[in-house]
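Minutes, project huddle
Topic: does the predicted pose make sense with dinuclear copper ion bound?
PN asked that the exact inputs be recorded in the minutes so nobody has to dig through chat later. Recorded below.
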Amino acid sequence: MKNSIKILILLFSTVGIFSCNKQQDKNNEGQSGALASNAAERVYVAPGEYDEFYAFISGGFSGQLSVYGLPSGRLLKVIPVFSQDPEKAWGYNEETKPMLETSHGFIPWDDAHHPDISQTNGKLDGRWVFINGNNTPRIAKIDLTTFETTEIIEIPNSAGNHSSSFVTENTEYVVAGTRFSVPIPQRDMPIKDYKGNFKGALSFLSVDPESGRMDLKFQIIMPGFDYDLSHPGRGKSHGWFFFSTYNSEEANSLLEVNASQNDKDFIAAINWKKIEEYVNNGGGKKVPAKYAHNIYDDETHTATSTMENEVTVVDPTEVPGAIYLLPTPKSPHGCDVNPTGEYIVGNGKLSADLTVHSFSKMINAIENKKFDGEAYGIPILRFEDVLAGTVKQAGLGPLHTEFDDKGNAYTSFFISSEVVKWKVETQEVIDRQPCYYSVGHVMIPGGNSAHPFGKYVLAMNKITKDRYLPTGPEVTQSAQLYDITGEKMQLLLDFPTIGEPHYAAGIPADIVRENSRKIFKLSENKHKYATISNGDARVERDGNEVHIYMTMIRSHFTPDNIEGVKVGDKVYFHVTNHEQDYDVPHGIAMIGANNSELLIMPGQTETFVWEPKEVGVWPFYCTDFCSALHQEMQGYVRVSPK
Ligand code: CUK
Ligand code: CUA
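Predicted holo structure (tokens), as shared on screen:
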């Protein structure tokens, strides 16, 4: 077994190199895949026109979420989530610093992987986007009226929060699964004692249907596998959640010798409705766990961070009939459910085939108690009893699958660098198109819901090599857009992406556009340090703290000449933007402030702190070109000796 895997891996890498070398000659050959002859026309969005879809593309190691228009591929915004962003003062101003608090302290970076849009009755409703932070496990929520991150919750007992953040069909839950199994609770113990002692926490965060507030409702403490991706059941399988696993050997080192010994790992099928009921009836155990829950309040425009200290955990054996393991070949990565909820596709990344499980067969096997052993008390179903079929020799290194609204699936193949279209019912391959190169995820707007919009598939590539102008040792990562309205996919467009795009969520623009907020009313500003009336602009001293209550409007600050500040003071600039027009932010930056600028939206207040170290008369200015007199929007602070 070990040898055959070695050969497989060798074969895969050879093919990978071969396909890249081949593509490097593409300029000579004039080859660029099945590029549609009128591709330019089909992605062209005329000046002043809107795109048809929003695409929210994860930034991977940039920690952020970028917003693109499709089909044009135009970048519309970068929404700061897990990483500090000086452009928007995210994590720099006093209002948003609490958003990046964790039980480990202030952590201004994370690895953002999988965005998912909220749903009602299995349809995208465009209210929120959820996205996971892998490294210091977190889930964030972005409000799509403001395109701002309004909540971040840390996930305790978890590490490498990768199987996240997918939502159930009424956004009852957003789910967070651990990648690493770890000692729960964390403690000092030999790593070699992993097997049987390390555990994997799968977390279910309830979402309030009105406010959207997330709460960590329960965690299922699973065997010590690694958990990879997950997807919710829908339609007939609503109430279930599916997680792919690897390292079912429970090896503490994943060097080739240890990992992938087992021919099959598992997809864990979890009846969350059953577990929810158990917890609602007082089941589970409350255990101590420290985790931060950070909320950005819409009225005060200020975040607060609360440290929680316990969580409800459930041992699978306490709730018989709630969890089953479906054997799935070759270290499955993606774990995707089709729009009807009948098929669960496991993409074994060391395989050339795709495994398609049947939900009805699974239920049947459960009812007939056809088990093939167990793992820590969790029944293992027989592979043959749950298998709907196999997509044979579809490509090399399958990672992720999305679905259109016509019964087709689209699977990315990392090693053979292509997207393969196949029929879900019959598992027959219909088309394949190359990706440049090494595609990770693919995305169809609504592809993770019961109602996909099967017009385009977006491939997110890990390597671009010769596709773009060189920019030093690192070249951009990219997305490729294919038209999928016909039998064959047609490549329309390449465009560069921010960070490493791991996944994206797309939605028809109309659903979001209508609700996009234009203005914050000054009269509704409840910020603690807001200056609503210009007459209230002032400077107040409180010990060695100086509070400047400042206003900004085209094209001046009030006050703009500030005296009475001393070296060693802590100077708070509380700045309120008095504009009441759409799209008129002002900025402010202070020389020598160990900080970023503030970029303040009309009607809002933000605060930064400046600690002057030297006497002098120090200027500040507006950073956003706001009017013909933008350059005149400035002021001075006089700093006197202590
Ligand atoms: S993982 Cu990146 S290509 Cu986080 Cu979705 Cu598969
Ligand atoms: Cu205000 Cu420039």
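Observations noted during the meeting:
- Residues 46 and 72 are 9 Å apart (CA to CA).
- The domain at 2-513 is CATH 2.130.10.10 (Methylamine Dehydrogenase; Chain H).
No decisions taken; revisit at the next huddle.
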